[in-house]
Structures are given as structure tokens and as C-alpha cells.
Amino acid sequence: MTGYFKWIGAGLGLYLTRFSFFGAFFGFLIGTFIDNFSRAAKFMNERGEQGGQRFNSAQDIYGFYQRQSQRYDFPTMLLALSAAVMTADNRVVKSELEYVKTFLKQQFGPQFTTKHLKTLKAFIDQDQPLPLGEICNDIKMRTRQEVRVQLIHYLFGIAKADGNVSESEILVLKRIARMLGVPDMDFTSVKNMFHRDTESDYKILGIEKTATDQEVKKAYRKMAVRYHPDKVAQAGDEYQKGAKEKFQRIQEAYDNIKKERNMS
User: Fold this and answer.
1) pLDDT above 60 for 19
2) What total number of domains does the chain contain?
3) Does 24 have pLDDT greater than 70?
4) Residue 107 sits in the same domain as residue 215
5) Averaged over 76-91, what is the pLDDT?
6) Boundary (domain end) residue, out of 165, 195, 225
């Protein structure tokens, strides 16, 4: 109704003052003030949606997160965590942005719009630190552990998009995993799928290099069950794709160890 209050005010002023010109005039002025205030509020709201708003505190950012998550729900959770990883090394590269855009398009299809990207920009552009504790607690309450582990896999994909997972990104990812309630074993397993060293195959299976052949076989069976794609069967196609990739990495790690040890 923005734009009509001045006429409503003029009409009320005219009626309440028994058709006085001055009553109508003052009613018109009051209505104009309301119209202008409404336009300003609408403009500021749109700026917040479009990523142009600057927040004064972490609490302001979390309030924005809550408003957006009520509207877009799960995508906003992804966007908030994505922004935390993308800004971990104080630079946002195009390959990371493309990774996020591709994932969201595949995961949400037509529901993915430019508003999602504007929300991501709002999170990235802030000088204030993101309130990760509150955001992760909200996500933890809304999702199962299997989905949260898959979120860590997705976030490592962002970090790896530029070809290298930096130490600063690992620190942020570890902090997010801890606040999401992701077990250390799961975090270490996923981490070594993206950030490899000489013992990564063993770490993917959750064991040490000193493990016996029987312990290797037992660990493989345990991880194969733990990370089976059926665990996230109710999630979107892109999550199932990530789960299958993770399951395949476990198989590859086991095959590498068997080859290294000449196991049957």
C-alpha cells in the first residue's frame, strides 16, 4: 500500500476536522511521512537481500541468517558455511564461487535463484566475523549427523576448488566440524580425501599405518557401512553424489593399502 497513506491521511483529516482544509492538509503531510518511511524500510530490506547491507555486529549477521533461513531454509545454511570457508584465507577466488554455484544449481534446481547468490555476497562482504557458533548450532538441531558429515565433504570441496587446501581453511573446517558435532574420526577421514599425505589412505579408514592386515579389513568394513550412500538416501541428488564419491574414496584407499601390503 506504499504511496496511498497520504491520501488516506488527507481523507481522515478532512473527516475528523469536519471538512477543514487545514485538517486535510495535515493529514496529507502525516500520510506522506508514512509513505516515505515505508519506502525507506522496503529499500533497506531489499538491500539486505541483495548483499548490499553492512552489519554492525555478529548478532546482526545472525539475525540476517535467521530471516533468510526461514525463507530459503537449507540453502542459507550452506551459504553461511560456504562463506566461512571461502573467506578463511582472506581471499575469494572464482573457482570457489563456481563450485558453490554448480553445487546449488544441481542440488536445488529451479529453487536456486540470484537471491541465493546475493545472500552469499552478504555473508562474504561483512567486516564482522560470521557467528559460526550460532549458525552451526542451528544446523546441528535441524540435521542428522550423516548430513552434517556430508556438509563437511562439501565444504572441503570448496577449499579444494583452487587446487589446494590451505592450513587456514583446514582450521576453519575443523572448527565448523567440531561445532556441528561431527566426530573427529569422520573429519579426519574426509580431510584426507582432499588433503593427502603419505598416510592418507590409512587415515581415510580411521586407522594408523601400524595396523595389522586384519585391522585394515575390519576398518574398511566399518567405514563402508558408515559411509554407505544409503545413509543420505533422503537427501538431494548432489548429496548422494557426494556420498558416492566419499564411498569410492574409501574403496580406493582400501585397494591402495592392499596393493601396498600385497594383501589378498
Assistant:
1) no
2) 3
3) no
4) no
5) 90
6) 195
